[in-house]
Fold inorganic diphosphatase.
Amino acid sequence: MAMYVVGHKIPDSDSICGAIALSYLKNQIGEEAIPTRLGEISPETQFILDRFGFDAPELKLSYAGEQVYIVDHTEKTQAPDDIDQATVVGVVDHHKLGDLTTSTPLECWIRPVGCSNTIIKMMYDFYGVEIPANIAGIMMCAILSDTVIFKSPTCTTADIKCVEALAEIAGVADFKELGMDMFKVKSAVQGTPARDLVMRDFKDFNMNGNLVGIGQLEVIDLSVFDDIKADLEADIAKLKVEGNRHSVLLLLTDIMKEGSELLMVSDDTSIIEKAYGVKAEAGKAWLDGVLSRKKQVVPPLQDAFA
């Protein structure tokens, strides 16, 4: 029986590239695996897939009765809706432990690094499996994306060493230039509906019984949002009501200035202000040095809700 390898809802490059890379590894060691996805491909991820000649994994939303290997999360809010009816056979992740539970023993590769693909590279090394050039390319790009080309505080020496090794395998002479090309794709927001932008990299979290949605848009210049910021603010307000969420946050992250403008709607804005030590003005606040949702945004907010 084949296992399905799948990342989180609203998949990012780490989830998609990780599902492809891990499935190849599993098949090479005699464990049949099929990469899948839980949502549409983002422009950045499509750029990566096109650059290295991959089709997007199959869109599959139901996994009841199937074997599933989870990539890049352990949160039930981010997993398939019927994950409780599936058998989770493994997890590769670099986030905090979520509330996903299993009824049987499973394989776990969890490390405090900047990207799940860094861990998958470790798995290739552990099993002694050679990485094809095209798979090395997408893994490298996923790490560059998650670590914001090594600027993120989540970046570790392991991430950097993996990118260097994968770039050599992939035949990429200047991986930082390729990383900037990826972020230029992310920065092309004009003409895209507000809802598509808000949901481009959006995750829900259960914070002490409160549903909190946090989205992030990483660009090379925040001025690209000047004409559409009001539309984004209106849309996160709608999203809060539609999902019966306590709060919705949207990070507009400038990777060059290394900080984020936080847009917020909440039942209690004071919790958010307390979490980040800021005073919101008209539902906005500047978070200097904040690039990582995983390390700099979720933990203090979770503590504030507790």
In short: The longest helix spans residues 13-28.
